[in-house]
Specification:
The structure is a homodimer. With about 475 residues, chain A is α/β, with parallel strands linked by helices. Chain A is about 40% helix and about 25% strand. An eight-stranded mixed sheet of chain A has the order 1-10-12-11-13-16-14-15, with helices on both faces. In chain A, strands 3-2-9-5-6-7-8-4 form an eight-stranded mixed sheet. Chain A is elongated, with a radius of gyration of 24 Å.
Chain lengths: ~475, ~475
C-alpha cells in the first residue's frame, strides 16, 4: 500500500507525509516501536563497540589500529548477510605522535611544575632537547595580531579563551574556540612565535589534554612551529602563574611527525533496495579516531550505531525500498579524505544519493536530529518528530549534519545528523578520557533506534527521483 | 508591574499566564536566561555535592554521616544570608548493615562460586553461621503463590524478574519490578521460605548489588526471614546454574540489624516573601541516602540543586514575592519520616503551602518536569514549557512529583518533580556505583537552573490564595 502511494506522490516531488499520515500513522508508529524494542533488547552496537574500543582502541588514520578496525568492521558487516560489503580505497595522511609529550612551567630557574600537554594533530616536533621560552597569553587570534611582532617574537603563544559555559549546545561553544587550535600556530608563526600552547577544548577543569586537528595553512616548512594543547587545569595554572610573574617560562617537548600518505579504506555495506535500488540512502560515522583514549564516543559510537541500522532492519525483517548503505568513513579527524573520496566516487559513478545521515556527536542519549536541507523540506520532515516523541528524541532542527557526508551536498540530497545530549561530550572528545566505560548501552541503542526509524521513514516517504 | 497584575488576577484563581504573556514574555525569558547563565558560571551545587559525597559519603538515616550532612548543609545554608535557617526534629529508623555480606552458589558440595549481594534495607540477619538452602527461582510474587508451600518450604526464594528494557522511562521499569524487593520476603515467608534473594533493580548486567527498602508487613518477628539483593550478573549466573541443576544450593550471610528510632532532622532554610510571606513554596530533596556508594545521584544531587535555587536567587538579586523554603528531608529511603513530619507540622501550624518541587531522580541532564495537579492547572503550567525550550528541558508531563513532598498533597497545593534523563539512573541507584564522579557538573547545574526558573514563574504567576 505504501508502495502505490509513494509512486503516485512522487510526481509532485513532495514528501507524502501529510497525505499518508492518516493511512500509515498506526503502521509507522508500530514499526518504530518495533525498531526501538529490538534495539533495546537485541541491538549489537554495544558489543561491537566493546571490541572496537577495548580490543583495538584508538584508530588514528594510517595506524595499525585503523587497519584492524577496517578488517573488523568489514568482517562484522559480512556476518549480517548484506547484499554487498566492500572496501573503498583512499589515501590518508599519516601523522605519528611519537614518545609521550612533556611540559613544565618554570617560574624561576629550576622551580618547575609539570603540566599535561598533548601534541596537536599535524604538529611538528620541538627540537629534540625541547623548547623553552617566555609566554604571551592571549584570548584570541585577533588579540595576537594587535600585540604584533615586537611582543610575540621569540615567545610561546598561549591561547587561553575557554569554551563559553552559558551555551547550552556545547558544540556551539566548541565552534567558538576551535580557531585557536586549528589556526593558532599558523597565525602565531607569522609574528615570530616559536611555539604554541592551546587551552584544551573542554568545559571541565581537569587534567586531560585534548588533541585535535591543526593546520599550518600555506606556511613554508621552515616557518612552522610546534603546537600542543594543555589540560584546562594546566591552562588555569599557567594563566595564574603568568599573572604573578610575566617572566615565567614554559618548556615543552614533543616528537610528533608527519609521514607520506598511506592507503586505507572506507568500509561499506549495503542492502539493495527492493523498489528503487538506484536511490541510495547513506548512514555512517567515521572509523578513524584520535590516538588518545579508545575513540568510543568519537566516533566509535557513530560507527556501531550505523552498522546497527542495517542489523536492525535485518532482525525485524524489513526489506527497504531504497538501497541503504552503511559507510564507515576513514580519516574524518585529520583530513576528511574518506568523506571526500566517497563523494567523488559517487559522482563519478553517477550514483543517485537521496539521503545521508551521520552520527558523529557522541553516543549519549538522543535528543533529535539536525537537517541540512531547505526550509520547506525541513517543515515536512519536522512533522515526523511526533513519531519520536515517545522516545524523547523529537527535537528536530534545521542546520547541521555531519562532516563526512558534507562532501555529498552538491549532489542535492537531504543531509542529517543525530543530535545526542551534548553536555558531557567535551569531557571526552579527543582525549584519553574518551573510553568505552563512558558510553551507556541504552543511550547508544536509543540513538541507533532513532537513526533506524528516521531511515525507515525516509525509505517510505521520500519522493522518488528517477 | 507584575505585582499589580498578580493581585488583580488572583481574584479569578487562575494562572495569569495567558494575560501576562504579552507583557512579561521578554522579562521572563531574560530572567530565565540570567538564571541559567548564573547557574552555569557561578552555581554552587557541584562544590556542595563534592563535599557531601567525598567528605561525608553515604548518609543512611540514623548514621553519623547523616548527622554530619545535617550539620554541613545547615552551615552552608546559613552562609547564604537567608531569612531563616533551622532544623526540624524527626525520629527516624536506624538500620545498620554490619559486616560485609557474603554469598556463594554451590552446585555440588564444596564447588562454590562467590556472588555479590547486599542486605536489603530493613532485613534481619541470617544466623551467625549463615544460611544455606536450595533455591526456587520465580519471576513474580504471583508465581510464588501458584507454586505454594509444598515447593517453597525450607527454600530460598530467588526473585528474578528483570527490569523491562523496552520502557523508555526507566522509572516505569523500576516500578514494574520493585514489588519483588519490597514485599518479596513478606510473601515468601508466608509460604515457609527461609530466605530471599532478589535480582538487583538494574538494567545493566554488572557486579553491583543494589539495596533498597523492604518490608515484612505485619509478619510477627519470629516469622521474618533475611533478604538480600544479588547483582544482575550474579542473578544471571544463579539462574543459569539452576537451569542445569535444580539441587543447586545458595549460601548467604549477613548481620544487618534494626535498632530503636533515633532523633534526626529535616534541614530548612527560607527567604521570606516580599508580598505574600504566608504563601510558601517548597523546593527540596532528601538528605539521607543508602550506605552503599556516596549517594551522589540519590539524592545528593537533589539536595544541592535545591540549595542552589535559593543561592541563585540571591546571586541575581531576585527578591521573591512568596516565601521560598528549601527543605532537605531526612529518611526518604527507609521510612519517609522527614516528609511526613514536615507535612504534619505544616498542617498543625496552619501554614499555607502553594507549591512544592522535588528533585529526586538523579543529577542527569534535565528533560522537563512532572506535575501532580488537575488537568486544567497543568494545561496552564504547560504553556510555560516554551520558556524551557532553549534549555532542552521543556518536556512537561502530568503525573508524578516526589516522595518527600507527597505527604503535603492533602493540603491542596501543586506538586512537581524535576525529570532528568533516566537512562543511566539505575546503573547507580542504591549501589556502590552511586558516586560523585558519575555526576556531570553542567547537567547538575542545568537541573538547578530549570528548578529555579520554574519557582520564579510560580512566584510570579500563581494566583494569590489568602
Amino acid at each position: 500500500m505504501r508502495f502505490y502511494l509513494a509512486v503516485i506522490l512522487a510526481a509532485s516531488f513532495q514528501f507524502s507525509v501529510a497525505q499518508t499520515a492518516e493511512i500509515n500513522t498506526k503502521d509507522d508508529a508500530a514499526m518504530i516501536k518495533e525498531i526501538f524494542d529490538t534495539a533495546l533488547t537485541g541491538g549489537k552496537a554495544h558489543d561491537w563497540l566493546r571490541f572496537l574500543s577495548l580490543q583495538i582502541g584508538g584508530r588514528l588514520s594510517g595506524s595499525v589500529e585503523a587497519e584492524q578496525a577496517v578488517n573488523y568492521t568489514k568482517t562484522e558487516l559480512e556476518k549480517l548477510g548484506l547484499d554487498r560489503v566492500y572496501l573503498q580505497p583512499v589515501m590518508v595522511p599519516k601523522w605519528v605522535r611519537g614518545a609521550p609529550e612533556f611540559a613544565y612551567i618554570e617560574t624561576t630557574p629550576g622551580v618547575t611544575t609539570t603540566v599535561p600537554i598533548t601534541a596537536l594533530g599535524g604538529s611538528i616536533a620541538t627540537a629534540s632537547m625541547g623548547l623553552k621560552a617566555e609566554v604571551v597569553e592571549v584570548k584570541s587570534l585577533d588579540e595576537l595580531e594587535q600585540l604584533g611582532r615586537s611582543v610575540i617574537e621569540g615567545k610561546i603563544v598561549f591561547y587561553n579563551r575557554p569554551m563559553e559555559p552559558t551555551l547550552i549546545n556545547t558544540f556551539a561553544a566548541y565552534g567558538g574556540c576551535v580557531d585557536q587550535r586549528y589556526s593558532g600556530a599558523e597565525v602565531a608563526a607569522k609574528f615570530g612565535a616559536v611555539g604554541v600552547i592551546v587551552r584544551s577544548m573542554n568545559l571541565r577543569v581537569d587534567d586531560f589534554p585534548h588533541t585535535g586537528a591543526m593546520s599550518y595553512g600555506d606556511l613554508p616548512l621552515d616557518q612552522r612551529i610546534p603546537a600542543a594543547a594543555i589540560s584546562t587545569k594546566g591552562a588555569e595554572l599557567l594563566s595564574a602563574t603568568l599573572s604573578l610573574n610575566k617572566q615565567t617560562q614554559f618548556y615543552f617537548k614533543q616528537n610528533s611527525r608527519n609521514f607520506p600518505d598511506v592507503k586505507s579504506y572506507n568500509v561499506i555495506g549495503e542492502i539493495k533496495g527492493s523498489l528503487y535500488p538506484n536511490e541510495i540512502m547513506v548512514v555512517g560515522g567515521h572509523l578513524d579516531s584520535w590516538d588518545l583514549g579508545d575513540g568510543s564516543h568519537d566516533d566509535g559510537a557513530g560507527v556501531v550505531q550505523s552498522m546497527d541500522v542495517l542489523s536492525l532492519f535485518k532482525k525485524i525483517g524489513y526489506r527497504p525500498k531504497r538501497t541503504i548503505r552503511v559507510v564507515l568513513f576513514m580519516n574524518e579527524e585529520n583530513g576528511l579524505r574518506g568523506g571526500n573520496e566517497y563523494a567523488r566516487v559517487a559522482l563519478a559513478e553517477g550514483e543517485n544519493h537521496v539521503f545521508a545521515l551521520e552520527s558523529d556527536s557522541g553516543g549519549f542519549t538522543p535528543r533529535g536530529f539536525m537537517f541540512d536541507t531547505d526550509q520547506e523540506t525541513f517543515e515536512q520532515i519536522k512533522a515526523w518528530s511526533n513519531y519520536f516523541y515517545p522516545y524523547l528524541s523529537d527535537r528536530f532542527q534545521l542546520g547541521g549534519s555531519g562532516a563526512d557526508i558534507g562532501p555529498l551536498k552538491p549532489q542535492g540530497l537531504i543531509l542529517a545528523g543525530l543530535k545526542p545530549d551534548s553536555q558531557r561530550y567535551f569531557d571526552h572528545h579527543h582525549s584519553d578520557n574518551d573510553r568505552f566505560e563512558h558510553v551507556n548501552k541504552r543511550e547508544l541503542e536509543l540513538g541507533a533506534a532513532a537513526m533506524t526509524s528516521l531511515i525507515y521513514l525516509m525509505d517510505n516517504y521520500l519522493p522518488q527521483t528517477n
